[in-house]
Structures are given as C-alpha cells and as structure tokens.
Amino acid sequence: MNRIFIFALALLAAASNCQTAQQSSAVAGNQQSGSSTQSNGDLTATITGSVSSAATGAGLSKATVRLRMMRDGRYYGNAYSAVTDASGRFAISDLEPGEYGLSASRNGYVTASAATAGAQKSISVLTVASGAGLADLEFRMIPQGVITGKITDEDGEPVANATVEVSDYKLALSASQSSPTGVAPVRTNDLGQYRIFGIAPGTYRVRVRVESKTYDNPAQGTTKKLAYPATYYPGTAEAPSATPVRVSSGNEQQVDIGLAKVPVFQLSGLLSDQLSFVAPIMAVGRNGSVSDRYLARSTDNKGNWTIPDVPSGSYTVVCDVIVDGHRLGARLPIEVGEKDVSGLQLNLRRYPTLHGQVRAEGDAPLPTKMKIQLEPRQELVSMHYGWAEPNKDGSFVLDETSPDLVDVVVTGLPEGWFMKSALLSGRDVFESGFELGYGEKGPLEIFLGTSGAVLEGNVVDSQQKPCRNATVVVIPEPSHRLVKSRYYTATTDRDGHFKMNGIRPGNYSVVALESTESGNDTELYALDKGGQSLSLEEQATKRVQLQALPIE
C-alpha cells in the first residue's frame, strides 16, 4: 500500500510572487497567461481604472495591475495584467466572466491586494458578469517601509550570511501569535549589513538566525557546546521580550542586533511506529518562551531521531505525518536544562475527531452558511485543520483536527448573532480554549445568541470634525484578551459614523484611532491607549462619541 507523508513544519516562509508578465501599456490593453480559453467577444468585459499613491493621491505610472481567475477561493485558469500609463490609468480587456483576485504592484510601494470599485468600500475579489465592464476600479498604494541594520557578534564583529526576517507583532494575543508578513527574509552581507524593503506600515518583531554551528566551550571543556540561538531585537531569544519595531509609510527604520552564544544540548529518542520513511520531527518552543524551531537532523526508518543544538527552555517535540490517507501526530512536552536529554519516545496516534451540536437561542433556524472550525493558539504544525458545516439539525463532525490548545470559531453568522457559549463534555471552554489530545471526542455544544449588543457612534478628529476612515477597536477586559473573537473593529464612514452588531455582552473599552494604513498593529495601539470603558448588554444599543487618537 502506498504510504505518503507531508512535511508540515510551521517555518516562517516568505510568499513569492510570479513576476513573469511582460509589461504592456495601459492603453494597449492586457495579456493572458495560464490555460488557453476560447473567448466569445460578445461575452467578454473591459476593466479600466487607476493606481495612485495613498500618501499624495498622485497617479502612479509603471504599476502592474493583475487579475487572476479564481474558483472556490483558489487561483486557476487565465491571468490578465496591464501596466499603468504616465497618469496612473490602466485598461484590461477581453475578460471572461468569472471571479478574479486583484493586485497591484510597483517598486517602492507595498503590493495592494484590494481595490475600491464604485460605492464598494474595498474588494479583493472582483466578479465579472458576461459582457459587463467596470470603469472605476481604483488601487491606492502605500509607500513601502524599510528596515535596515547591522548584525554583530559578542565581540562587535559583523556576522555575514545571517538570515533576518520580520513578523507581525501581536501584543493583544498570546506571544506565539507572531505570524509571517509575506516579506521575504534577507541575508547579511560581508559587513553584517541587511536591508528589508516592501514592508507595510505597522509594528513588527525582527529576528535573526545564523546557520547552525556549534563551538567548544572553553570554560566547560569540549563536552559542552555553544551556538547562536535565533535572536529577536534588541537581543533576546524570547518572543515576549522582543522590542516592537514600528515601520512608518515611506520611512527607513534602523534595527541593529547583537548576538551572543549560549550553551546548547542534544535531544534524542525513538519514534515507536515503524514507518517506511523518515518522519519529520522538531522541537518547538512553548508559549512563545523560546524563539525558534529545531529540526531533527539524524533520523532513520527504524524510528531513531536526534535534534542537536537546542538551548535551555520549554519545548514540545512534534511529529506530524499522513499515512495511508490518515493524519497522525505525536506531542511530547519536555524541559531542556543544562544537559542532553535522551530516551524520549514519540507515539504516533490518529488526530482527533470531534462531534458537536450547534443550537440557536429560542430554537431559531440555523444559518445556512455557518462554518465551525478550531483555531490553534500556537500552531505547532502549518497544515490546515479544516472546517465543518453543521447539518440542518445542528450536528457536525470535525475530522482529524488539531489536538493542541485551540479556540472554537464560528463564521458565517447573520448580523447581530454571536457565539454565546461553548461546552466540551459539559465544561465551559469559550474563554479557556481546550486540548483534544487524540481519539474520538465530544460532544462540543455551541450556543448562539441572536441579539448581541450594538455599539454605534461618531468619531471626530483633533479639530472636532468628523473623522473619516478612523479605526474603532472594542477591547475585552484583561481576563479575556487571549480570545480573538472578543475583539471587534469597525471603520468610520465619510461622516465619522460607525456601527457594530452582534457584540458578545460584557465589559469592554473602546478606542478610536486615526487610520493605521495597516491592520497588523491595531490591537497593540488600542491597548496602549486605554480607551473609554463601557458595559454592553444583550439586545441593547449603546452610543458613544470618540476622538480619534494619533498613531505615533
């Protein structure tokens, strides 16, 4: 029987964009790539629009606009592109009916993956009907930010070929929620210098990694080894201790990082299941306390494995494979102190299946587009765990989902609805999250409210005038801040007005911020500002007047 496995290592990887489209003028039209399709001239459409700078409003020449056909949320089939003229205008013709993903790119600017069209606020997927065109598609591109600096060792000497990368800084959520940005990591030159460009304005962690190499420890003899751990700015191996780096639109931020060697140790053990292939095994720092993931370098098809050069700290040893179409995994929490750790045994077990039931308040009919999924608080592996659509009676099954600490997430709810509670085998897990482990689990009972709290109001600027495009953030009280679904955001309209429906009743604070241009640091700045306290009740509407606070 065929046995296959998929490496599911949650390594930070940069997204790469295919830059194969040949440039053509906006006036000349467009080009296609991908599968060839016979077009009917009577059914095709033409899209025209403009690309401008979000900072100055001026049109941008030489920007490439791309439309890629989509189906079920994935790209397929034909791609169309055009390059803007001197005034920032473009035209793409002979578009077939269907859905298209949008993007615009240009040197010196952050790639825009959404545009405005007519009265719509923002769209990332454009639906083209037969023979119907569009004449006002507009991309507003943000000038890129840049992070540059120098990496040195403990003696102040430059470190060449070190890898420097940035990730989103998520203060409001758990420390392990740092996530990739889509900006490619870079390597330092022979002077230890680096430059990362194309960064959207926001708040980030900056981390440097060096190619694994161990050094003898003169103080301890040759039996002890030293190595450079992955290090966050300004010089810590722990993500929670990293200093946030604020990147502004069009500006360059200097970030220098000094490295220092630390003692490292070896982990070794046995994977109990006899597989016909070498299984991927790694040690992952727990709760954001250790910055890196360490991969097994020496494994064999008898199950023996070794992970070298691991600093002291708390880890989970992880194995994740697919065998005969079924997902298997192993998790082993360990502590690494001041010596090697051997004799560790990993036992592969099938990922858990979770049975559940959704009920709505007052036995209201369940939404037809609702989806249930589990969201890990720390992603030990990068594979998607899937989702389930409840049956008409509200029952659902999540097959081979995450065994790790997760939160239940419900999407596709009608306006005003909210998740009221979640019980696993009678235990309330809405706030705490839950770990399934392995095997059959349940029942997970989800109760939905149909009349959540409503918050609306107006935001003014420092001149007491209506503040357009301000971001309003509703923040839960401190005991609930690890739960993503307890945060709510809205953007004000041209009159400075906003409205949020379906807020879970409770105590919150609310903050209005001037447009951040990038959403990655909204919670960070909102928490830093404190905000106006408010108590929200079910079926009740509260109105507030806020002044937008600046982003320094």
Structural summary, described in words:
With 552 residues, this protein is mainly β. The longest helix has 8 residues, at 522-529. Strands 12, 13, 14, 16, 19 and 20 form a 6-stranded antiparallel sheet that branches. Strands 17, 18, 23, 26, 27 and 30 form a 6-stranded mixed sheet that branches.
**First-residue to last-residue Cα separation:** 60 Å
Q: What coarse outline follows from CA principal-axis ratios? A: globular
Question: How many E-type strands?
Answer: 46
**Count of DSSP helices?**
1
Helix-strand blueprint:
Elements: E1 31-33, E2 45-53, E3 64-71, E4 74-83, E5 89-95, E6 98-105, E7 115-117, E8 120-123, E9 125-128, E10 134-141, E11 145-152, E12 163-168, E13 179-180, E14 186-187, E15 193-199, E16 202-209, E17 215-217, E18 221-227, E19 231-232, E20 245-247, E21 252-254, E22 257-258, E23 262-271, E24 281-285, E25 293-295, E26 298-299, E27 304-311, E28 313-323, E29 326-336, E30 341-346, E31 349-350, E32 353-360, E33 371-376, E34 395-398, E35 405-411, E36 418-424, E37 427-428, E38 434-435, E39 440-449, E40 453-460, E41 471-476, E42 488-491, E43 497-503, E44 506-513, H1 522-529, E45 532-536, E46 541-547
Summarize, please.
This protein has 552 residues and is mostly beta strands.
List descriptors.
46 strands; globular; mainly beta; Immunoglobulin-like; single chain; 6-stranded antiparallel beta sheet; 6-stranded mixed beta sheet; 552 residues; 1 helix
